[in-house]
């Protein structure tokens, strides 16, 4: 029961894309776990990596003065709350795996396929503006 990687998840920003691939692999590792202990370990690793990835994106947003940072960060907080619930449900043996697969698939479509695309495009413009010597936001 894996989620298929799609090119629409690529943002064009190599560090973000590399992290997305790792994140994606952790999701599939979780989905493929077959026993409670394995699934719990995979869920914890998924939560930890999600936090790490979001911290990287939030630092990138701070460094570039990303205009949608507040909304993007709010989505991160919402996702982390869901991921914590995932870990709890695994621990309590109350997990409905198919619902979580749907949630994670939707997360990739909406977050990577939309929110992170916007962030990556802004970062690219920001870098170009800095190379030209133009202050960001005035390019």
CATH superfamily: Hemerythrin-like
Number of domains: 1
CATH topology: Four Helix Bundle (Hemerythrin (Met), subunit A)
Helix content percent band: over 70%
Q: Which structural class matches the secondary elements?
A: mainly alpha
Radius of gyration: 17 Å
The topology string of helices and strands comes to HHHH
Number of helices: 4
Q: In whole angstroms, how far apart are the ends? A: 46 Å
Report the average pLDDT across residues. 90
The low-confidence parts are none
CATH top-level class = Mainly Alpha
Largest sheet: none
What is the β-strand count? Answer: 0
The proportion of strand residues reads: under 5%
Which term fits the overall shape? elongated
> Which architecture per CATH?
Up-down Bundle
Give the topology, please.
Blueprint: H1 14-32, H2 36-64, H3 69-91, H4 97-132
Helix pairs in contact: 1-2, 1-4, 2-3, 3-4
Q: What can you tell me about this protein's structure?
A:
With 139 residues, this protein is mainly alpha-helical. It has one domain (10-132): Hemerythrin-like (Four Helix Bundle (Hemerythrin (Met), subunit A)), CATH 1.20.120. 77% of the residues lie in helices and 0% in strands. The chain is built from 4 helices and no strands. The chain starts with 13 loop residues before the first helix and ends in a 7-residue tail after the last helix. The relative contact order is 0.15.
